[in-house]
Here is the input.
Amino acid sequence: MKKLLILVFGIVSYFIFFATFLYSIAFVGNLFVTKTINTGETSSYAIVINLVLLTVFALQHSIMARPGFKKWWNTIFGASMERSIYVLFSSLALILIYWKWQPMTAIVWNVESELYATIINTIFGLGWAIVLISTFLISHFHLFGLLQVFQNFKSKTLTDPKFKMNFFYSLVRHPLMLGFVIAFWATPVMTQGHLLFAAVTTIYIFVAVKFLEEKDLVKIHGEDYIAYQKSTPMIIPFTKFKK
Here is the structure.
């Protein structure tokens, strides 16, 4: 019964994540949904509220991803649930942003050409495609906790995905993050609120990857990852900036 409950929890967490992921595309791209990055009620404290929301997400995302925290967390909930819990909390932090985000609608730039706007929107879609494809290039279902709960349900030992440099990962070490950066900045109409979101998330991505995730990956993969760092850019393709 316990294994079945863990399996159900993992499946529910995954589908909450996937719905949140789809909503994020609409939220950032001002598509379909009623509450986007440029809609809703605002206040004179919009910039403060938005920075607090982004900080909450950054702290949750970084703290819960650290090996020390995961080791402690596993002593309470077990390794099979760790990733699903992380995915659920990340989704809830995003939902909080969607819910409480305060629009700042002053225009920073507005591309009026229909052709150029279409090109930019295509790049926006390409960014999200890179994000999704990148998760499958490593191990999508492991990354979001489904594989762990299924293996636990079948009483099988879970092994971590092998280190590999395929497709996007031969161009940059973190294509998933590159996809996010592209998606967040590619907009024909940039408002102050969207600019704040894009700038803060981009800074967070580069800082968290360089000073947190990269160190964890070196500890996990050792010399293989150090060689990878020397040969492949971190996030920006075709640059000399490696580490």
Notes: The chain is about 70% helix and 5% strand. The beta strands are 107-110, 189-191. The chain has a mean pLDDT of 94. Residues 30 and 36 are 5 Å apart (CA to CA).
